[in-house]
Each structure stands twice: as C-alpha cells, then as structure tokens.
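Posted in: Structural Biology > Protein-Ligand Complexes

Title: Requesting predicted complex, acetoacetyl-coenzyme A in pocket

I'd be grateful if someone could produce the 3D structure tokens for the following input. Sequence and ligand are given below.
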Amino acid sequence: MNEVIGYEVSDGIAILGINNPPVNAVGASVRQGLSNALHRALGDDAVQAILILGEGRTFPAGSDIREFGKPPADPWLPGLCNAVEASPKIVVAALHGTALGGGFELALATHYRVAAEGARIGFPEVTLGILPGAGGTQRAPRLAGAGDALDLMLSGRAISVTSAEAAPYIDKVVQGDLRQQALSYVQELLAQGAGTRPTRDIRKGFADPIAYQKAVALRKEVVAKRPEIAPQEIVKCVEAAELLPFDMGLTVERAAFDDCVQSDQAASLRHVFFAERRAPKFPEISGQGASPVSQVGIVGGGVAGRGLALACLEVDLEVVLIERNSAALRESLGKINAYLDRLVAQGRLRGQARDDRGMRLHGKTDFVALSEADVVIEAVADDLKEKQQVFFQLDAVVREGAVLVSTTMRHDLHQIAGKTGDPGWVLGLDIGTPAHLQQVAEVMVPEGVEPAAVAALVALLRRLGKLPVRAEGRRAHIGRAVLGAYRHAADMLVEDGSTPYLVDEAMRAFGMKFGPFEQIDREGLREDRTLRRALADNGTLQGRQVSILDRLCEAGRFGRSVGQGYYLYDGQSPSGRADPEVIALIREERESRGIAARGFSEEEIQRHCLAAMVNEGARLLRLGVARCPSDIDVVMVHGYGFPRWRGGPMKAADLVGLWAVQRDIEQFAQQDSVFWSPEPVFDTLFKAGQGFDALNG
Ligand code: CAA
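-- Reply #1 --
Done. Output follows.
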C-alpha cells in the first residue's frame, strides 16, 4: 500500500485517508495509492462501504499542477474516478477545507458526499487555462443543471458547502468531528439499504432540456468574446453532457482537456500561479516570524494616504492618520467617511462594520500620536525636502522597532532614511493608487535593512490582501520601470507614423486591459510626465526623446479629468474618441524632427511594446532590482493590466522565443540604438538553450 493513502477498516467501512501535504494534491502517488486501496477494499469481504477523506487541512485541492505539461503518469484521474463510480460497494467522500478541481471531481464520482460546515468546493481549472478533465464537466451538470454548473466552472470560484449553489452536490453538511460524523453517515446509509448511486446515471440536471440549452447558449455567447480558450471548451463540454451518452461526453472532455493543457495559455497561467506563490517569499523572512502589527500610522491624507487608511481599516487595524493642519485633516477624514458611507449605501458594507471602521480611524495633526504605531507609512507629496522633514519628525516620536515606510517614486531612499537615527528600519513601498483597490505592492529593500522590518511590512501587506514583490535597491521600482519602457516604445511608434488610437487598439487586442494612451489619459498626462522624468533621472529611460506628451501638456490636454488628452471626452463620447487636433499636433512634431511617417501593423506594434517591456525587465534582473523574471511578471499582471493568460512579459518572451525578441530589439535599434540595446542575458540564455524561466529557480 502506498504511504500517501492510509487504509483502515472500521465497522465494515474502509477509510481511505489521503495524506499528501500541504493540500493533498492528487498527484501520481495519490492516484496510485487510491487505486490500490480501492481494489483492496473491493476485495475485502469485511468491507461493506468505502469512505474517502483527506488528512490534515483539506480534502484534495486539485490535481498536482506541477504534473501538467509533463507526460501523464498512470493511473489517470479520469480512470480512477470512473473506477470509484463503478464500485459495487458504496463510496462516500467526506469533504473539508478546499475540495477543488480534481479533488472535487473525485468527490463527484463517489456515490454520496458529506461535508464539514466550513468546507468549500469549486472548479478553479479555468484560472489555470484548463477545464475539469476528470469527468467534472459531465457529472456536475447532471447534478446541478447547465447554468449553475457552468457558472461554477467559468468563474473558478470556490463556494461554501452551506450555500444554495452547493446544495445539488452535497448530501449532508455536518458540524464537529468530520471523520466520526462521516462514519455515522455511512452507517446510516448502510442501515437504510442505500445502494450505489453513480452520478453518470443521474439526470436531474437535464430535467428541463430547453432551460439547459438556453443556459449553454447564453454562456457560449459570453465566452466567445473572451480571448481565453478554456472557457469556450468548458461550454462545449457541458453542452455535450446533455447531448451525448456519458462515455462519449467523457471523450469530448478529454480531447478538450488535452488541447487546453498543452496550450501556451495554460502554460502561462500555471506560471502565474507559481509566480504568485514565489513572490512573497522574501529571503529576509525565511525562518522568522513577523512581529504582529496592530496600529498603522499614515502621514499624509491625500489620495495615496486615504487609500492606505481604507485598506488598513478593512482588515481591523487601528489607523492614525496625520495631516499638516486641522483643515486638511477635516477634508481627508471627510473623504474617507464619505467613501465608507457610499459602501453602506451600495449595500457593500454593514452599518455596524462602518461604525467600527470609523472608531478605528484616528485623525491627528501632531506626530506624537504615532508613538504607538507598529508601522508608519509616509504618503506626502514626492518632494525630497518634505519627505526628509517627515522622517526627521518621525524619528523623534516612533517607538523602537517601528517600521518606517516611504512611498517615494523619485528619490533615493538613503537620502530619506538618513534623516532617522536608524536607517535599517526604513523601507520603500510602491502600492499604486488608490491603495485599497490595488492587488500588488512592491517593497523596496535597500541594502542593510533589518530583516525584521522587511518581515513586518510583508506580513502587513499580506494581511491587507496585497501580493508583496521585492524590489532591491534604493530607487528601485519594477512596474514603473517596465511601464515607462512600454510607454516610451508606444511614443516612438506614434512619432514614427502610427497614432495613439492604433497603438491602443493593437495593445488591447494583445490583451492589455487598456491601451497605453488611454491609460495615460486616465492617470493624467502631468502624472505620466512626472513618472517619465523620474525614470529618465534615475537612468531607466535613456536614448531618443519624444516630446508629444509635453506638447499635449502645453496645450492643456491633461487627460480625461479635463475632457481632453490623447482622446477627446464629451457628452457625445464620454469614454473618449480620436481627436484630429492630436493627430495634427503629432504630425507637426514628426515633421519638425524630419521623420518620414510609416505605417505599423498591429503585430509590429505589439512586438515593439513587448520587446521594450522584456528588455527593461532583463535590465532590472541584471541590476538585481528584480529577483527573478516571475516577480516582474506578477507585478505586470496584477498591477499594470498585462493579460494573465500571457503570463506576464517575461513568460510571453519565453513563449515567443528569446531569439525572436532579441532579433526584434536589434532591428528596432536602427531607430535608436540607446533605448533598443539588447540586454546580454538574451544571448546567455539563448546559447544555453534556456528561457527566462531558468532564472526563476
Ligand atoms: N498542485 C500542486 N501544488 C499545489 C496545488 C496543486 N493543486 N495547490 C497548492 N499547491 C502548493 C502551492 O504551490 C504552495 O506550495 P509552496 O508552499 O511550495 O509555495 C502550497 O501548496 C500551499 O498553497 P497556497 O500557498 O496557495 O496555500 P493557501 O492555503 O493560501 O491556499 C489553496 C490553498 C486554496 C488550495 C490554493 O493553494 C489553491 O487554490 N490551489 C490550487 C487549486 C487548484 O487550482 N486546483 C485545481 C488543479 S487543476 C485540476 O485539478 C484539474 C484536473 O484534475 C483535471
């Protein structure tokens, strides 16, 4: 018997306990072990029924994702599920924790399901670019109908077993000791003479064929607009579930699964899954617990400070917000309170929770109020003198071991930290605005910082629900540097003959959430100009100058907030339309530089933009700012709208081939050999037959 599967017989019930920490993923050894244990139980006359459960924290949370993309090892999960379903002795699954993906599919193949009250079930496969490939697309709709089953599979959500949505899949929800409760349940079933109940034979979900087909048609229309392959395949499989006999449906599912699992999209999404788990593992944290944070100080009540305050209030922290005077404080607190009230009005926050947040927010104008804070985040204007003054004042009041954090985008952290008596407790943070809505946070770790300070800030960010990514250095930003390079490439394309509108269209077609110019319009052209200047100052953006943005600023076209930027916004087109004035301004600028306009295809635009991002990412790796390519990828996916299904720019480069990207950069260098200078790592990796993934270690 395989050691990952425990086998025990209790009162005629064989208990198969899956023991593969941390999440009992159904890898080859689990499948083999379960298969052996099933045969043993079936051959044992003393066994009347079989109970499958997960040891430790969960019923299996899915197949082992690390096995995808490799040759499959026998026995396969679909075959194992079929064998479980075909068992002549009743098989019951006892669910707790997160019974997801292949784990949930295994449960659906058993004859009855009992679940602990806190358990969650779901099909997260779509988030990995695949579909439930062990009969899930055929069994779930038999139990729940097409609409509900599809909603679960297409969203990838995990739902509570006590929810109405989960009811068709779960026979009994229990409290207390799951093992004991599940054994009693099996005994009850045996006492009632309950027989096996193969899900393949259940037709409850097909009771209303018209409703079934309508539900399929509706989702088919929605997914057809999405660039991802897996959702479309999921809908086809669920459609087949009703139209075809069960075994043929399984064949359709298998073919669709094989197509998806081998796709670039699935490889990219798997890459992001592991990248997200790699990113928060900062070397400073290994083996050391972080001191708990209960009070956060925030200096500055502007957009950035308010967002940080809201994020902290959301997770039960005490917040001390410092403003320079009572009027500014009143205004800032007023805006925070108004935001909370809006949440209540929209039904997104209960009155009691809103009051509770209000009680935990303490507005002050005196730095002394920060004496108890565990972490203080400075969010004042990005002016060196002002920031230095804040840190000088903080040094006088904060307790020993308090972590001080600057949000500077432009300045050297050492110059700011130098104003305190112990610079080892000063870190940088780039969380974007508004902070409470952001998913990713870059932690700037200068040399010589106390590991405990890093651990405390990372723990705080995890609690805030942010994905922390490490950027090493004093003026180090990953996302903004890559974004700057991307926008610079877009600028050059426009100056050389394209238009902002064509570039935006091409990048949306690539999968970016917004095109670069519409994004600048949203953020504001002045803000973008500040970013570009900061990047030019710290040596990130070098080479050819493009002044179109400056010209637009001179013309008062500051972006969406003023009704005009790269686009024109008015009652007729509130989301913006192309503006001939902008085209004329670009033409003038081009002519003044003696540039002969030429056209760029959608693919050329995409190649320029991707190459710029990747080359900048490679530069950040060379400088040691980014620890590994996958950190760059998660920052771009979570913070800058890069399509998750492309895996981030570095993964996208691996899939295109580094040689192709390098060749593009060399070709673009004919226009500007400074900006378009290929990083040496392309050559190194290419000659070793590797991609960026080799650096993810
Ligand atoms: N396969 C392999 N490793 C997995 C895994 C899986 N399915 N799920 C989690 N892990 C690993 C993580 O990589 C992580 O490893 P490290 O500690 O080395 O970083 C570890 O388990 C713990 O995971 P988390 O940090 O994510 O733990 P958590 O408590 O925050 O979340 C979870 C637990 C909700 C189960 C989450 O891990 C998760 O969502 N896992 C993926 C679930 C999933 O997608 N299942 C479907 C797989 S595809 C499938 O099943 C299809 C099929 O058979 C046909």
